[in-house]
């Protein structure tokens, strides 16, 4: 690894790549579900896969289980990559400067967590019979479509911001599996920040974690 290649912590690489894989798998299977049962906004006429709704649901449930772990990492170990106290002011006063791009990147990273939270809430509240029955007007389904559209835009912007700020070396650094001696499990806990670095980050953390809890709990009451 050259000196100019950014080093990403091992725990970040593990969690980020697992979350990214699940997101793309959910997006692909989710589009297959849409392409088979909805088609209101266009279609690719993809081959039908048996129980594609169940496959999408299983991937999404796995994503939901891993999401709180990733969120806790982001807010307590990787918080410098999220919205900071001065982010909004930097976006309005530092246009065109390097800090403006970094601030935008932090905002987009935070938006990904929020859109993922909305996606799991709305997805968990959906019923499998809605789409096969052509019941496409349910509010939870519309919210789920909106959440994934927001997720797609956020991820695309996330990749563009990384390319703008660090080029290919930054984009590919998350897939570099070299490990430094000091980046071992016993070191991870020592770097944890119990308290978020700013009050605005605390608000976002509360929104994400409460939203994830709602995604776990609400279906239990809805089924009764």
What do you see in this structure?
- 68% of the residues lie in helices and 0% in strands.
- The protein is globular, with a radius of gyration of 19 Å.
- The chain has 224 residues and is mainly alpha-helical.
- The chain contains 7 helices and no strands.
- It has helices at residues 10-37, 52-76, 87-93, 98-124, 139-173, 185-190, 199-222.
- The chain has one domain.
**What share of residues are in beta strands?**
under 5%
Give the SSE order as H and E letters: HHHHHHH
Number of domains: 1
Mean pLDDT: 87
Radius of gyration: 19 Å
Helix content: 55-70%
Number of strands: 0
Helix-strand layout with pairing:
Blueprint: H1 10-37, H2 52-76, H3 87-93, H4 98-124, H5 139-173, H6 185-190, H7 199-222
């Amino acid at each position: 690894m050259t000196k100019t290649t950014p080093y990403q912590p091992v725990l970040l690489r593990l969690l980020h790549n697992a979350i990214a894989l699940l997101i793309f798998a959910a997006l692909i299977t989710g589009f297959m579900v849409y392409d088979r049962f909805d088609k209101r906004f266009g279609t690719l006429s993809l081959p039908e896969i048996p129980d594609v709704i169940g496959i999408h649901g299983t991937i999404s449930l796995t994503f939901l289980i891993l999401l709180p772990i990733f969120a806790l990492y982001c807010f307590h170990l990787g918080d410098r990559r999220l919205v900071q106290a001065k982010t909004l002011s930097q976006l309005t006063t530092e246009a065109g400067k390097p800090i403006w791009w970094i601030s935008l990147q932090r905002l987009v990273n935070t938006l990904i967590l929020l859109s993922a939270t909305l996606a799991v809430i709305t997805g968990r509240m959906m019923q499998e019979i809605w789409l096969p029955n052509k019941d496409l007007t349910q509010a939870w389904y519309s919210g789920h479509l909106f959440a994934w559209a927001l997720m797609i835009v956020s991820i695309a912007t996330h990749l563009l911001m990384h390319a703008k700020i660090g080029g290919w070396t930054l984009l590919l650094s998350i897939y570099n599996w070299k490990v430094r001696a000091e980046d071992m499990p016993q070191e991870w806990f020592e770097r944890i920040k119990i308290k978020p670095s700013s009050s605005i980050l605390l608000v976002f953390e509360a929104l994400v974690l409460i939203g994830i809890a709602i995604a776990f709990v609400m279906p239990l009451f809805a089924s009764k």
